[in-house]
Amino acid sequence: MSDKSIASTGSHEPEHEYSAGLATIAADAVVDPGMEPHRVRMTDKSKKHEKAAARQVAAFFFASIFGSAFAIYAYFAFPLTEDLGTVRNNTLWLGLGIALGLLGIGIGAVHWAKTLMPDAEVSEERHMARGSEEVRARAIEIVRLADSESGFSRRKLIRRSLYGALALFPLPAIMIFGDLGPNPGDSLRHTMWKKGTRLAKDPSGLPIKASDVTLGSVFHVIPEGLSELEHHKLEEKAKAAVLLVRLDPADLKESDERKDWSYDGIVAYSKICTHVGCPVALYEQHTHHLLCPCHQSTFDVTDECKVVFGPASRPLPQLPITVDAEGYLIAQSDFTEPVGPSFWER
Known about the structure:
Layout: H1 42-45, H2 47-77, H3 84-115, H4 133-150, H5 156-168, H6 170-178, E1 199-201, E2 218-223, H7 233-240, E3 242-246, E4 266-270, E5 282-284, E6 289-291, E7 298-300, E8 306-309, E9 321-323, E10 329-331
Antiparallel strand pairs: 1-2, 2-3, 3-4, 5-6, 6-7, 7-8, 9-10
Helix pairs in contact: 2-3, 2-5, 2-6
């Protein structure tokens, strides 16, 4: 049926019928174009071009080998120091070597597929995920045929250069990940803090008197003498960095064994988050909470820096402090527990 609308401008206007919009598709509206005609490549017609393409593929793989080897060389030839110029050189040459190692494999594989592997298009009907034994046997036969047609087993130069490239290109990554540091073992249990070490401002290195720390103030602290180190300064600072806060002594909730770890409301805690080691440096004065900006772990300064929110699994280690005869804040000892991420203990 069709809807009808009758328009009339007079007494004897003809009637007009309007269709509701049904579409009619002709039987021959779309014709399956089929597969495009196969275009024969030069490598299909000429042994000379085929051998040249094989050499080009191998050249890309050899370039990858060179790039990976150069990245390993650059890792040692341009060591990182505190000079930013060495950081730029190490990043530049190491990055170029790794890029060449990856691009050599990628471009070589694409060139191999484009010039030497069969390029005829094939369409297949979908079937069940697991075929019959005959189908599975046919699949194995197809894999063997593909190996034969691609020449992987037959083309020794390509195969061996690819093996070399694949063997070498992960090595720069292994070197870089290794530079993140060995399993620290007991190294995180020991820092520069020891009995009598003065607390100093970061980065000036000036010692801090208890009278300089007003109620509610926060100091970023390092051990006195850290700035004078010639070697491993950054490593030592990463372990020994401390946040110093002064609170009303009445607000502190101290366990019996920590009653003498603070001085007149002044407490000192490791600045290194116990989640993954980010610097905890955001202090909210009204709630007395310390916040890690990386993953929002939150610690309560009034309650021995216990975790009140976030993924951190243990409180921030506390540095026992007191004052010397001149009124300077000093450490009573080193931290009594490892600083930094808790996953090192697992």
